[in-house]
Amino acid sequence: MLDRLAPQAPDALLALIKMHRDDPRTDKIDLGVGVYRTGQGDTPVFAAIKAAERRLVDEQDSKSYLGPEGDMGFVEALMPYVFGEANPTMGGRIEGMQTPGGTGAVRLATALAKAAGVTRVHMGTPSWPNHAQILADLDLEVAGFSHACPDGTADLDAVLSAIRGAGEGEAVLLHGCCHNPTGIDYTPEQWDAIAAALAESRALPIVDVAYQGLGHGMEEDAYGLRAVLAAVPEALVAYSCDKNFGLYRDRVGAFYVMAAEGGQLPAILSNAAALARANWSMPPDHGAAAVRLILRDPDLTAQWLDELDTMRTRMRQVRDRLAGAGTAGSVDLTPLGIQNGLFSVLPLSKDQIAALREDHAIYMAGSGRINVAGLTEANIDKFIRALAEVTA
Ligand code: LMR
C-alpha cells in the first residue's frame, strides 16, 4: 500500500541548507534559511541562553510530562513583551499555550480557526511558503492579496480591500513584523488603518509574530499586533522565540488567543489543547524553560536584550551597506535600507539565482529572498559584484 505514495520534492528552503553544506568551495555564501549570523558568519547560542541552560541543568528536578499547554511560566513571562507591560492580558481576555516553534503556533492558530468555522484565509503574497503549506494541509481555501508595491513599500490598498471584502467564516493572516520574505512592513499609520478596517470586518485576524526585536526593537515591532488587538473583539496570535532567542532547533513558540470576553477562554483553550494533543501531544520543554528563566531574572533579561540589540544593529548595518551601494547591475538595492529583519527579496530570475549559486557559490531561496545576516565584511563586496555580473 505504501508504494502508492508519489515521491514529494524536499522543502526547497530546507534543501538549500544541505546544498550549501555539500558545496566544497571555501568562499561560498549562505543567504538561504533564516538564521542570524554574526559578522564572522556564526550562529552562536546566546550567552543569556547558555547561562539559563546551566541553571536549568542544576535546578531542574524532573522531566516528567507537563501537558499539552507546555510551560505556562514561559507563556506568561512572554506576554508583557508581546502585548505590552501595561495590560498584558487585555483585561483577562488573552491566554496562551506553548507550541513547537512558530510553525506549531501557526498550525494551532489555523487549525483552531478552522474548528471555529473559518473556511477561507486571506493572506498577502508572497508569504513564508509554509503558511500556504499549512493552510493546504488543513484544507483551508487561500485568498491571496498583493503584499508589496513594486517600489518596495507595503501595498496598503490591497490589504484593506481584502479585509473589507472578507466576511463571516474568513480569516486574515498578517505578519506582525519583519515580513518574511520581503522585509516590507506596514508603517504604524498603515497598521492603524488595518486595525480600523479589521474592527469593521467580521474576519478573524491571525497575526504571526516570528521576528519580534529584529526590526526596530521589541516595543516598536509589537506596534501592529497591539494596534490590531486594541481594535478587534477577538484574534489569534502565533509567536516564535526561535529567532529572537536563537533557539531554532529547540522549537520554542507560543499560541495566544484574545477572546471577546475572558469567560470564553476556557472553552477556546480546551479546543486548542485537544488539537495540540492530537498533533504533538506536548511541546518540547528545554528551550521554553530556558526562556522562562531568562525572563524571570532581570540580569539575564538585560543580557538577552543586549544580545538582541547587537543582532539588530548588525543587520541594520548590512542593510545600510547594501542600500548605500545603490544598484548592482539591474538590481536596485536602495529599498533594502528601509526594509526590516532578516529578509528581503531581490528581483532575480530563476536563471540568475542559479548562476549566483553555480558560478559564485551564493545560495538564496528560489523566490529571490536573501537572508541579509548571511552577509559580512568578508563577503559583501563579492556578493554585490556577483549580483552586478549576473544581472548585467
Ligand atoms: C525561514 O523562513 O527561513 C525560517 O522561518 C525557517 C523555516 O522554518 O522556514
UniProtKB/TrEMBL annotation:
Kindly list the biological process annotations in GO that this record carries: L-phenylalanine biosynthetic process from chorismate via phenylpyruvate
Protein keywords? Aminotransferase, Pyridoxal phosphate, Transferase
Cofactor(s) it depends on: pyridoxal 5'-phosphate
Pfam families noted in UniProt: Aminotran_1_2
GO MF annotation, one: identical protein binding
Q: Which InterPro entries match?
A: Aminotransferase_I/II_large (IPR004839), Asp_trans (IPR000796), PyrdxlP-dep_Trfase (IPR015424), PyrdxlP-dep_Trfase_major (IPR015421), PyrdxlP-dep_Trfase_small (IPR015422)
Kindly state one GO CC term assigned in the UniProt record: cytosol
Positions of the Aminotransferase class I/classII large domain = 26-387
Ubl conjugation keyword on record: no
Which family is this sequence assigned to?
Belongs to the class-I pyridoxal-phosphate-dependent aminotransferase family.
Share what the entry says about its subunit structure, partners included.
Homodimer.
What is the name of this protein?
A: Aromatic amino acid transaminase
Task: Give the species.
Answer: Tsuneonella litorea
